Amino acid sequence: MAAAAVEVTWDVEYILWAPDCQQRVMIGINGRFPGPNITARAGDVISVTMNNKMHTEGVVIHWHGIRQFGTPWADGTASISQCAVNPGETFIYKFVADKPGTYFYHGHFGMQRAAGLYGSLIVLDSPEQPEPFRHQYDDGGELPMMLLSDWWHQNVYAQAAGLDGKDRHFEWIGEPQTILINGRGQFECTQGPTRKSFEKLLNENVETCVDDQKMCSDQEKCLRRSECGPYCPRSQCAPVVFNVEQGKTYRLRIASTTSLSLLNVKIQGHKMTVVEADGNHVEPFVVDDIDIYSGESYSVLLKADQKPASYWISVGVRGRHPKTVPALAILSYGNGNAAAPPLQLPAGEPPVTPAWNDTQRSKAFTYSIRARKDTNQPPPAAADRQIFLLNTQNLMDGRYRWSINNVSLTLPATPYLGAFHHGLQDSAFDASGELPAAFPGDYDVMRPPANNATTASDRVFRLRHGGVVDVVLQNANMLREEVSETHPWHLHGHDFWVLGYGDGRYDPAAHAAGLNAADPPLRNTAVVFPHG
Amino acid sequence: MAAAAVEVTWDVEYILWAPDCQQRVMIGINGRFPGPNITARAGDVISVTMNNKMHTEGVVIHWHGIRQFGTPWADGTASISQCAVNPGETFIYKFVADKPGTYFYHGHFGMQRAAGLYGSLIVLDSPEQPEPFRHQYDDGGELPMMLLSDWWHQNVYAQAAGLDGKDRHFEWIGEPQTILINGRGQFECTQGPTRKSFEKLLNENVETCVDDQKMCSDQEKCLRRSECGPYCPRSQCAPVVFNVEQGKTYRLRIASTTSLSLLNVKIQGHKMTVVEADGNHVEPFVVDDIDIYSGESYSVLLKADQKPASYWISVGVRGRHPKTVPALAILSYGNGNAAAPPLQLPAGEPPVTPAWNDTQRSKAFTYSIRARKDTNQPPPAAADRQIFLLNTQNLMDGRYRWSINNVSLTLPATPYLGAFHHGLQDSAFDASGELPAAFPGDYDVMRPPANNATTASDRVFRLRHGGVVDVVLQNANMLREEVSETHPWHLHGHDFWVLGYGDGRYDPAAHAAGLNAADPPLRNTAVVFPHG
Predict the structure, then answer these.
(1) Last residue of a domain, which of B371, B405, B424?
(2) Coil, helix or strand for A392?
(3) Which parts of the sequence belong to the Plastocyanin-like domain (chains A, B) (predicted)?
């Protein structure tokens, strides 16, 4: 099959939007949030002409999971692969959708992703790159992708000011107000007596919707006035409904672009079979619910094998004591009903996702992911070099800074890629040495960091092209005693094999033999558990 | 006297601040709002090293009223004199404080001024450039400058999204929540029963302030929790107090950097003598209150000739039906009191500023401004060319656009100044012709604009260096019937003579003879009245 061209033009601009029925300013694309879905076939060339219509902010867009073979300048990371595109300017991203899978895109400059600049990117399989599980779901069984995110009512500029605050000026952003499913949530309208509002939202008819102020002939105006009560139109914060026919098997793609939240997706009365992770095949396994960390993506197979009705989909927070209520969506068997609306709320309560602090359960899920047997490409037997990356929370000049081996990244004004291309690497950033590739042998990962002499640097690691590198991601205790959090790590431009997980400090002598060299999964995002 | 150097270094960054006792994100300088005062002497070289510490926004700073003789690149206007300074970059503004007067500085990119990026700039007189009214106020009689602004609780990104919205997505920002005096206001705490909160704020002791949550040992945390009630500390939203001694005469500088509001300043029991406007001498005249439009500055002489007590200063809105309550400050005679605090509220009610719609009164004030007789520099007898600028509100592609002679400005990505300097003027902007220098002879300024075929352009006028230009600023009716608003106009890089004002369409045959060629005031900002 000849590669096709997928060409779109985007205006990135501020929009007033009510993702959870509360209006805020967001960064939208072509006047909408989330940004437009992109669907391509493996091998297609995707071309996005991006016009920056914001007044003062630069912008870039990262194509999360796309390896950018041959087009590293299209990776969309400010200070790494390009300068931010200034207001009024246009930039064309052009790259190959190199392999089938579930991806997404998002702003990669400041906190623009958290401001709403993201959307889904689906790469369908092709005759040259078939997906081995394609025959396991029905034709037309591709459900809309489920893109998950977390949302704060406070704008990202205020969030940044608080997080960057020195000493007592530091302000933690707190837990998100709402978990969004495909950019939609229902703040304070899913629990207890307000559940009725959820039902109303579900069935609201745009044409007849009338709020207390009788303003609903103008759809937009009506929405802007709404609190948890009558809403119109349903477009911005209506619950997401996945429609299925009884007896068919579906493929549901799930991805997470949260800022903070670790999530779990559970569908009332249905099991899921995991078949894809981050654009790579995994050995199918059946789960009742699925954990998903920011940056990850999965495909699951879902059999509509229950009686024709509506079923709850719950998306709950894990890993942090949740102050955010689970997001809800509906799985609806439409085939048994004469007319689709009105949609009834499912019977019973939404399923309860696993306890937020049941880390063993999370580990069990993640550890069970293996490369698919019939397409497994095991890693090389030996690595050229080993890099240890200790991840700690530190204080630097009165400000909280995360650091790796006690070095906190400062982004250079000249992008690394441009610096190398133009021979500026001696002036554009600190090229006097590499970053430390290890951390002190006596570092106690179970205790708060004592080494608070964190330095800031824009040094890099230099790897041999085609080389094989072992990377040990070492989690540690935070500044507060006996607290360590789960951290997903994402790599641009490459997939990597996840050879193993463990608790406490990694000890090559004790742990290396237990690594999985046979069928480790390929991923672009890996999760490191507390103190792990 | 030899010129000195005034050198400062500024970090421009987001801050969480409570200018009217409600915390929001603002753009601050060196962690504070408003930005630091700059005081220089005429002839001094001011050098500001500006570090852009914002994460995604570019920034420039305009030195409002400074003519930038020999340093046009330091004017600080994005797309005009320079590119915006990108995040992480540094720009050094260096220019001569060319003449004594009352100035201020502000961001000139997007809506950053409205986000709080401004501060005062005072140029003191020198032996070479004496101010003729210097002997009329006492030594030490320079009061802190009064810099006025208006403030919205909605952030500027949301404001921009609403104002730029197409068709029904347009959202008007509404009237400001608070008028700020030197960056301080007291939202909902100056009227009626809440006046007590104002008094409490006035006298609050930082060390002992305790709010309901007992958090005030940490000053900042306390403030962040506050509503109209107990506040701590007093630093961010405490009322401004001007301290005077009975019998002395003072110089009070007043400037306005509002986005929308036309203001009037009135001091209980005191008259003011106007002596300076926009850094130019005016023939002294005595007023009960003073109108001030955005971009204007004045110096008034104030004699502390009342009994030792406290007096209200009211700053009220004019020109638009005010939904914003007047701002209040205190003039305090401290010399008669043994110990300064606690400060009593002044006796009686704050003075009431003139009715918002008493346009005749506004005209009377503005028309009475004349160049000071003993330093008058009248304009040349004849002009080389005449330009008529019709100012209308239009719709363009469903969006509200203000335009001049039916052309709405689009800013070019390459700054005009750089384009000319580098010989790029044929590619950087539309150099195929000039902007229209007149408007149709039958245009009815009393009616809504019919010519809605507004075009967008980045064309410029090209004037002869050293030439003399007559500019007629013609106000008109807005899109709504029988509405025309007052508009201040500001010119960069030059002062101009204000030859006259009038009502309705300017007719050279009828009106030219009535212009004031003898003692017109020099200004950098001129106000055009409704339909005027």
Answers:
(1) B371
(2) strand
(3) 12-126, 146-335, 450-532
* A-B contacts (CB, under 8 Å): 110
Nearest CA in chain A to B24: A158
CA separation for the pair A107, A57 (Å, rounded): 12
For residues A202 and B354, what is the distance between their CA atoms, to the nearest angstrom?
Answer: 53
**Burial status of residue A521 (CB atoms within 10 A of its CB: 0-12, 13-18, 19 or more):** buried
pLDDT at residue number A231: 46
- The answer on pLDDT for B199 being more than 90 is no
B170 CA: distance to closest CA in chain A (Å): 10
pLDDT at A191: 76
pLDDT at A338: 46
Say if residue A214's pLDDT is above 50.
no
- Across the interface, of A86, A162, A165, the residue whose CB is closest to B58 is A86
pLDDT for B221 = 45
Which residue, of B317, B349, B371, is where some domain finishes? B371
What would the two tokens of residue B10 be? Answer: 């500024």
Closest Cα in chain B, distance from residue A388 (Å): 29
Mutant choice from A25, A56, A232 vs B, greatest count of B C-beta within 10 A: A56
Give the residue from A190, A185, A202 showing the smallest Cα distance to A148: A185
Best residue of A55, A59, A90, A172 to probe chain B, by most B CBs closer than 10 Å: A55
CB contact under 8 A, A14 and B411: no
Question: Cβ contact (<8 Å) for B84 and A89?
Answer: no
Of the given ranges (B40-49, B193-202, B511-520), which has the lowest mean pLDDT? B193-202
Q: Is residue B216 part of a domain?
A: no
pLDDT score for B191: 75
DSSP letter, residue A493: S
How large is the ipTM?
0.92
Q: Could you give the CA distance from residue A396 to residue A406 in angstroms, rounded to a whole number?
A: 10
Residue of A106 and A342 predicted with greater confidence:
A106
| A413 with B55: Cβ contact below 8 A | no
Q: Count CB-CB contacts under 10 A for residue A446.
A: 12
Residues B351, B407: one domain? no
> Are both B297 and B433 inside the same structural domain?
no
Task: Please give the pLDDT value at position B38.
Answer: 98
Nearest residue of chain A to residue B158 (CA atoms)? A25
Q: Which domain holds residue A38?
A: 5-130
- In chain B, the percentage of residues whose pLDDT exceeds 90 is 81
Task: Please indicate, yes or no, whether residues B360 and B477 belong to a single structural domain of this protein.
Answer: no
